Amino acid sequence: MIRSIWLGLAAAAGLALAFLLFPSTYAEELTSGEVTVRLTDTRTGGIDVSVRVPARTSEVTLFATMPGMGHMTPAIIAERKTPGVFRATGELFSMTGEWVLTVEVDGEPVTFDITVDQGDR
Fold it and tell me: What residue range is the signal peptide (predicted)?
């Protein structure tokens, strides 16, 4: 009986730790008009991005700039998953600070201000 309790507590602690280290939800959701961007993280390093746009959209590209430092990340071309849903994976933020995320929807830029305040996990 006591062994079962300890096993249950260990399993619960393991699940809690996994949730903290590998969250399954998006950390940040940004919306401007018909464009919604969901970021798995707002830290430096690689992240996953989901972009919701009008169903007629054929191309979505993302890149970030850091106006205060003159930095710009290479563009990441998002992959179309379903009409109106695109996904991208890559590094958008190379250091902490104030960034501007640009999402180009069929060539039209939509910008979002983002504060990156933590480094890699």
Answer: 1-27
